Automatic annotation (TrEMBL):
Pfam family, one: ABC_tran
Record bears the keyword Transferase: no
Listed GO MF terms: ATP binding; ATP hydrolysis activity; ATPase-coupled transmembrane transporter activity
Keywords attached to this entry: ATP-binding, Cell inner membrane, Cell membrane, Membrane, Nucleotide-binding, Translocase, Transport
Annotated ranges, domain ABC transporter: 2-242
Gene3D superfamilies, alphabetized: P-loop containing nucleotide triphosphate hydrolases
InterPro entries found in the cross-reference section: AAA+_ATPase (IPR003593), ABC_SmlMolc_Importer (IPR050093), ABC_transporter-like_ATP-bd (IPR003439), ABC_transporter-like_CS (IPR017871), P-loop_NTPase (IPR027417), Thiamine_ABC_ThiQ (IPR005968)
Origin species: Cocleimonas flava
PROSITE patterns membership: ABC_TRANSPORTER_1, ABC_TRANSPORTER_2
GO biological process: thiamine transmembrane transport
GO CC annotations, alphabetized: membrane
Protein name in the entry: Thiamine transport system ATP-binding protein
Domain of life from the UniProt record: Bacteria
Length: 245
């Protein structure tokens, strides 16, 4: 389980946004819980703080106050490599000069000095994403959807408690999106991870998540059942984002 408790992040304002009091910093603040085995979708306008939230959890940014709790352990002050967190990005961050097997292997052993059990674990992860026969290919020989599957396999082998997904569906067509979402749901359930999925598309949230958080101006504007947050009962701010106002 992941708990983000009153997590605050201060950042400098653009010069044009400095208020009458001369305040030149702004603050984001987040509170949320994600259960093990759950994918919580994160929706909101560009610049609202979605990626900042993920960066705080992963350790790429440091909060000014608040806490991040994973499985009852406070990880707020831990370094990036010490956190039980793995991240999948939109561009999948594969190494173009390495084959598929090696790209996945780096997820568990950057030195690539693998035990036999680790090698078997990698093959199993590739089987889970349907690419066991592609282990000798390089990323340029794969489709966009296949490359994203490899990124997910690399996340799978790390066996971390928290999975952060920063717009991994953005470059995919509708059919491939559905395929990747099905894979994500199965993976999160199998490994009992707490997952956060950023997307700009409400349809992705409806497909992937029972619950959705809408972020606006650096805060959780609303969190709850996806149909309640993004459906007919959505409030004015969310309807404006959805283009329904």
């Amino acid at each position: 389980m992941l708990t983000v408790d009153n997590l605050k992040f201060s950042y400098p304002k653009h010069s044009a946004d400095v208020d009458d009091k001369g305040t030149n910093t702004a603050e984001m603040q987040f509170n949320l819980d994600v259960q093990a085995g759950e994918i919580l979708s994160i929706i909101g306008p560009s610049g609202s703080g979605k990626t900042t939230l993920l960066n705080l959890i992963a350790g790429f940014n440091s909060p000014s106050s608040g806490s991040i709790i994973v499985d009852d352990v406070d990880i707020t002050s831990l370094k990036i490599h010490q956190r039980p967190v793995t991240t999948v990005f939109q561009d999948n961050n594969l190494f173009p000069h390495l084959d598929v097997f090696t790209n996945v292997a780096i997820g568990i052993q950057p030195s690539l000095k693998l035990t036999q059990d680790e090698k078997q674990h990698i093959h199993h992860a590739l089987e889970n994403v349907g690419l066991a026969d592609f282990h000798k290919r390089r990323p340029k020989e794969l489709s966009g959807g296949q490359r994203q599957r490899i990124a997910l396999a690399r996340a799978l082998v790390r066996k971390q408690s928290v999975l952060l997904l920063d717009e991994p569906l953005a470059a995919l067509g509708p059919a491939m999106k559905d395929e990747i979402i099905d894979l994500l749901k199965a993976m999160v359930e199998e490994q009992n991870m707490a997952a956060l999925l950023i997307s700009h598309q409400p349809t992705d949230a409806f497909r992937a998540s029972k619950r959705t958080a809408f972020i606006n101006q650096g805060k959780i504007h609303q969190i709850g059942n996806t149909a309640d947050v993004l459906g007919d009962s959505a409030d004015k701010v969310i309807k404006q984002y959805l283009g329904e106002s």
